[in-house]
Amino acid sequence: MSENTSLDLMSVPRAQQIAANWLKFLLDGPPVPETIRRELVATLYPRSFRIGSSWVTSATNGIVLALAMHSWIPAVWMVVALLICFIRTIDWLRYRRAPDLYTPKQWARRFTLGFLAFGLWWGATAALLFLTNDQVVKSIAVLSTVAMGAGAVCSYPAHPPAALAFTVPAMLSFAVAAVFEGGWFGFSIAFVQTVLTANYLIILREFFQMIIRELRLAQEKSALAENLERAHIALERESRAKSEFLANMSHEIRTPLNGIIGMSGLLLDTGLMGEQREFAETIRSSGDALLAIVNDILDFSKIAAGKLTLEEIDFDLVEIAESTVELLAEQASKKHIEVALDFDPELPPALRGDPARLRQVLTNLVSNAIKFTPKGEVVLRIGAEAATNEDARVRFEIRDTGIGISPEARQRLFQPFSQADSSTSRKYGGTGLGLAISMQLVQAMGGKMGVESEPGQGSTFHFTITFGRSAAAAVTTVRSNSLTGLRALIVDDNATNRKILRHQLSIWGMYSHAVEDGFQALAELRAAALALPYNVAILDCQMPEIDGPTLARSIREDPTIAGIRLLMMSSAGERADFAQQSKVFDEWLIKPVKQARLHEALVTLISDKQRPAHTAEDRDTDPAPAGPLHFNQQFANTDFVAIGEPNGRIRVLVAEDNVVNQKVALLQLRKLGLPADAVGNGREALEALGRVAYSIVLMDCQMPEMDGYAATAEIRRRQAGQPHTVIIAMTAHAMSGDREKCTACGMDDYLGKPVKFEELKKVLARWMPAAVEVGVATN
Known about the structure:
Blueprint: H1 2-28, H2 34-44, H3 48-69, H4 73-97, H5 104-130, H6 135-155, H7 160-181, H8 183-268, H9 274-304, E1 313-316, H10 317-334, E2 338-343, E3 350-353, H11 355-371, E4 377-387, E5 391-400, H12 407-411, H13 422-428, H14 434-444, E6 448-453, E7 459-469, E8 487-491, H15 495-507, E9 511-515, H16 518-529, E10 536-540, H17 548-557, E11 565-571, H18 578-581, E12 587-591, H19 595-607, H20 616-619, H21 631-634, E13 652-655, H22 659-671, E14 676-679, H23 682-691, E15 696-699, H24 708-718, E16 726-731, H25 738-744, E17 749-752, H26 757-778
Parallel strand pairs: 2-4, 8-9, 8-10, 10-11, 11-12, 13-14, 13-15, 15-16, 16-17
Antiparallel strand pairs: 1-3, 3-7, 4-5, 5-7, 6-7
Helix pairs in contact: 1-7, 2-5, 3-4, 3-5, 4-5, 5-6, 5-7, 6-7, 6-8, 7-8, 8-9, 8-22, 9-14, 10-11, 11-14, 23-24
């Protein structure tokens, strides 16, 4: 007996727990996360239409009930229905005004209780209508109950307890009334109502699960979008920090490099002993090498960060190619390597694109070819693959006779920080970034790059880019009728040079014949003298057995051919003995020879056969005598405009916080014959301009107290309506947008550090006329 009592006592709390769980389920619905429950509750109070429909339904049902029963009961039910509608309306208004007044669970319970009251009322109403004797009213009650149940299930699946609270009391109350009605009709109606209720509950469950799945998916998408947004913001922050770091590093590295390269350049212009000059040249070349590495790293970082921008401007393709090869000629000459340029004359030279980036790629590839070629030649070929009135597809090939590349090494050749092998890296040096940067630059310009190579057989790097055609008239391709029909003998031991020269002369209408040594040249000239002599002989300076100067003397000593005009062509650095050889030839050009320069030399030689040979004094006068120079002396052969003596009218202010860089700038300006002063920051620059009417300011951008940007803006504000002082940015920043930032604050031009002497001359030449006007106006 005691055991049964114990079991009963134990079962009571369990039954209470089960009942409590069912009650909780009926009030709160299935367990869902709080974020999803908040979304579910938001769907229960969406619009005023549902509240309005409750009022209309209650009033309509009350009227129908009154007509059917003819008693006071409908009035009571009407009052109850309208009271329920009023309470639900107040609840709806409170939610619309303050959704956070209660927790989502409390709002859900309030909504469920309101629907339960409305369901009980509707069930009682339907039961009373069904118990009348009017078959029409019964039919209306049945149809209305079924419709109301279906509407509740379809309208409130987001919160099953609310739909249950309405559907079960409304439809089951009606079923109970049908059972009391009795008979086959009543039982049939009760059975149908029960089955429909169960079916509605199943549909309600499926709808609810579907809604939960959709909400979970929506929340996952939202969370994913938020994570992506946070990741994007983090990446932008990281990229911005990286760009700022690169800009600061650029400034910090370039600032001392400016002192190293600038001072070493000035030192080389003094009277140094042989060993001292060698040391100074080593310092300068090491500084240039370090600067090249810094530039490569910055370019690679800008590309990786997506900060690379390309220009779209008109440019001269011939000038770009010739200046690139000319720049590297001395590097090739030191290794006794021939560098040649083969340019397709049919290619339109005036194109539209980014000439600076194209020059960077060509310089990188040609420099690499020279570096990895111990002997032989490097040839840059440029031709047209296709051309229309709007654009031209240009193919560039850089072929060398160097060490070549194995198939395995070619697989990783264009990867950053890699070279063909580690031993090559140790022997030849380099960061391994050049080819990777070149590849990405070509791709950014819409082109493709490739390589063909075999070990020991040399390499050919090639890339193709489509450029727009320039609308501007181009006059770069040299064409002239003044050379048509003339005869030239080419003497060069290099077959590529012979081929390129013959091709170029044929474009100008000249007949040419090529031989590979001095013996063949003498025989050909003597044979031609008896029939149709040559007008000019183009001689290579360095040839086996008989070099160019020796061949020239042999020609001059032979009366039958002594009158021919002689054009000597040599590599850079081979002109030291020009004074001794100048009497035997008429012109001397440095290879690689630009088309325009070669054409000019040939026209001059042919048209002026009676002019005396140039003397060494005419050809080798030093353009930079020692000591301070006057303006016209120093800039006679530069880009400066001849404007007369500026002394007394031109004075330069250098705003620079680094003492070494101050000295470099002042010495460079002194070498140019321009008086200059230096200050340490932007505030001091403003004070100096208040005392002295400087015509030009070389303004560093990053300085303490007041930087160059702020100082320039203040200068422009003070000079409103007055003569415009020329301000040239002199900055170690080299990131994308720095030039635009300088222009935006009012600076006139931009010099990147390290400031090289030639670049300083060009920029000053560009602004000297404006500076003279300022000097005249302020004096």
